[in-house]
Specification:
Elements lengths: L1 H19 L6 H8 L4 H13 L3 H14 L6 H14 L3 H12 L8 H16 L3 E3 L8 E4 L1 H14 L4 H16 L3 H14 L6 H16 L6 H17 L5 H29 L3 H14 L4 H11 L2 H6 L9
Antiparallel strand pairs: 1-2
Length: about 325
C-alpha cells in the first residue's frame, strides 16, 4: 500500500514539474537565437560589403540568412546575391547552381533577367575553359572541364526566354562554340534559328557570316560535296538581300570564292591522280568539270595545262579543244 502511494506521489510531482516547465523549442527557434543579427541586418551588411567588393564577407552574411531565416522576405534575394558573389570569386559552377535554385523559386523573382544574364556569362566562361570542382564538391579543386555545362546553360536560356535578347545571344554563342568543336550540323541549326527568330537582331548578320564560314570549313574535308557550295550561295544571297549594306558581306563573299577554289583544286587533284595511275580519260573528265564549274579558279588554269597534254583523249571523249583556250 505504501509502495502504491509512493508511486502516485512520484507521478503527480513529475506531472507538475512537466506542466510548469516551458515548452520545448523548435529547431528553427533555436537557429534564430543562434543568429547574432536580424535577417535585414545581415542583408544590409552584405549589400554594403558587395558595394566594396567584399565578396567573401557578403557571401557569409547572405549564407546566414539562408541558414537562420528560411522564411525571410529576402531569402530568394540572398540566394541570387550569393550567386553573384561566387561569380566574382570565379566559382562559376557553384554560382550556376545557386542561380538555378533561384530561378526555380515559386515566387515572383526581382532579378529574373539579371540571373539569366549571369548564367549566360557563366556559360561563356565554361566555353572559354573555366573548370568546375571534382565530384561537384566545393572542397575539392576545380579540375573538371565544363564545356558540356556551357551547352546545357545555353539551351536552358533559349528554352526559358525564347524571344528575348538573351536567347539570341545564347543561340549565337552556342553556334560559335559548336562550330569551333566542328559539330557543324547543330551549329548551323543554332545560327539558322537565330536568323529566323530574330531577323533584325545585331547578331543576325554575324550569323549569316558564321554559316558561310562553317560551309567553308567543311569544304576542306568535303570538297566533293557540291551541296555545301550551293547552300553557301543561297545563304550569301539571303545575307545580301536582308543586309545589303553590311560590311560583313565582303567577308562572306571571300569565303564563297575560297570554297569554289577548294572544290576546283579537289577536282584537279583527282584528275592528277588518274593521270598518275594511267587513266587519262578519267582525268580529262575531272579537268573539264573543274573548268566548266569554276572558270575563274586558279586551279582551272592548271587543268587547262594538263588538258593540252591529253589532246588524243579530248578527241576520244568528244571534248571541244575550245575549253582549254
Amino acid at each position: 500500500m505504501k509502495r502504491n502511494i509512493f508511486l502516485l506521489c512520484t507521478v503527480f510531482i513529475g506531472a507538475q514539474i512537466f506542466a510548469d516547465s516551458p515548452p520545448k523549442e523548435s529547431n528553427r527557434e533555436i537557429e534564430k537565437k543562434a543568429a547574432r543579427l536580424s535577417d535585414m541586418e545581415y542583408f544590409n551588411s552584405a549589400i554594403s560589403q558587395m558595394e566594396e567588393k567584399g565578396w567573401r564577407g557578403a557571401l557569409e552574411n547572405f549564407g546566414s540568412i539562408r541558414q537562420f531565416y528560411p522564411d525571410s522576405q529576402v531569402f530568394d534575394d540572398s540566394l541570387y546575391f550569393q550567386a553573384v558573389c561566387n561569380y566574382h570569386l570565379m566559382d562559376y559552377a557553384v554560382a550556376n547552381k545557386e542561380l538555378t535554385k533561384y530561378l526555380g523559386s515559386k515566387y515572383k523573382l526581382k532579378f529574373f533577367e539579371d540571373a539569366l544574364s549571369y548564367k549566360l556569362e557563366i556559360a561563356n566562361k565554361f566555353k572559354e575553359g573555366a573548370r568546375k570542382h571534382l565530384f561537384d564538391s566545393e572542397k575539392l579543386p576545380k579540375w573538371i572541364p565544363a564545356k558540356e555545362d556551357a551547352l546545357e546553360i545555353y539551351d536552358d536560356i533559349i528554352a526559358m526566354v525564347p524571344t528575348h535578347d538573351l536567347a539570341a545571344q545564347a543561340l549565337f554563342e552556342k553556334g560559335s562554340f559548336l562550330q569551333r568543336m566542328q559539330d557543324y550540323k547543330i551549329a548551323l541549326e543554332s545560327f539558322q534559328t537565330l536568323i529566323k527568330r530574330f531577323p533584325k537582331h545585331p547578331l543576325t548578320p554575324d550569323s549569316y557570316l558564321a554559316i558561310n564560314e562553317a560551309y567553308y570549313e567543311q569544304s576542306h574535308s568535303e570538297f566533293r560535296n557540291t551541296d555545301l557550295l550551293e547552300m553557301a550561295q543561297i545563304n550569301l544571297k539571303k545575307f545580301i538581300q536582308n543586309f545589303p549594306r553590311d560590311e560583313k558581306i565582303n567577308k562572306a563573299k571571300e569565303h564563297y570564292s575560297a570554297m569554289k577554289e577548294i572544290h576546283a583544286k579537289g577536282l584537279y587533284e583527282i584528275g592528277m591522280f588518274y593521270e598518275r595511275t594511267s587513266k587519262p580519260k578519267a582525268s580529262v573528265i575531272y579537268y573539264v568539270t573543274a573548268i566548266e564549274k569554276f572558270p575563274e579558279s586558279v586551279s582551272t588554269d592548271l587543268c587547262k595545262l594538263r588538258l593540252q597534254n591529253l589532246s588524243s583523249e579530248l578527241n576520244d571523249l568528244q571534248v571541244s579543244e575550245d575549253i582549254i583556250k
